[in-house]
Amino acid sequence: MINSKIQGQVWKYGDGINTDVIFPGKYTYTVTDPAEMAQHALEDLDPSFAHQVKRGDVIVAGKNWGNGSSREQAVTCLTQAGVGAVIAASFARIWYRNAINNGLLALTCPAAVDALQHGGLVEIDLAANLIKTDVGSFSFPPLAPSVQIIIAEGGLIPYLKKQLKP
Questions:
Q1: Which long-range contacts (CB under 8 A, 24 or more apart) does 107-111 make?
Q2: Which one of 35, 102, 117, 166 has the fewest CB atoms closer than 10 angstroms to its CB?
């Protein structure tokens, strides 16, 4: 289903990172191209992120990642930038659902968040429900089969389109 392993560099941020920080609110109504959205991902928090992130890299965040408005741009900019997953201590409910709907893997694992360091390497093994680091491995709850399918298809719309094909 989903790519069973994701490997990348850690981009670590703190608690309460809201959607206006993930995708700056000043671009909400002026930037509509997903590729251009990627160029502004996290720019007010970490100006280097959008220019240095590599496909498969993983954001690690504290509590309540993605709080604020329900704008999908806060997920789209990350998927378009190549982020492979977000691991957080907790997620804002609407951001988490937007992540699933847009095919972005979002995992809750406070122990891994505490252990992982910015710039370190991480591997997510979905088959084993493990986050592997140089300081140890951390288990996370398995994803529901329906969530796995939606993410594997690249999001809810691609999944539904596939289901509706004759």
A1: 107/131, 107/140, 108/140, 108/141, 109/138, 109/139, 109/140, 111/138
A2: 166
* Three-state DSSP class for residue 127: coil
Please work out, in degrees rounded to the nearest 5, the angle formed at the alpha carbon of residue 69 by the alpha carbons of 32 and 80. 40
What pTM was estimated for this model as a whole?
A: 0.94
Q: Give the whole-angstrom CA distance, residue 78 versus residue 85.
A: 9
Strand order in the sheet with 105-108: 105-108, 85-88, 58-61, 5-12, 121-125, 130-133, 136-139
pLDDT, position 145: 93
Residues of the chain below pLDDT 50: 1
Residue 31 to residue 131: CA distance in whole angstroms: 34
Cα first-last separation, the chain = 21
Q: Is 144 exposed, middle or buried (0-12, 13-18, 19+ CB in 10 A)?
A: exposed
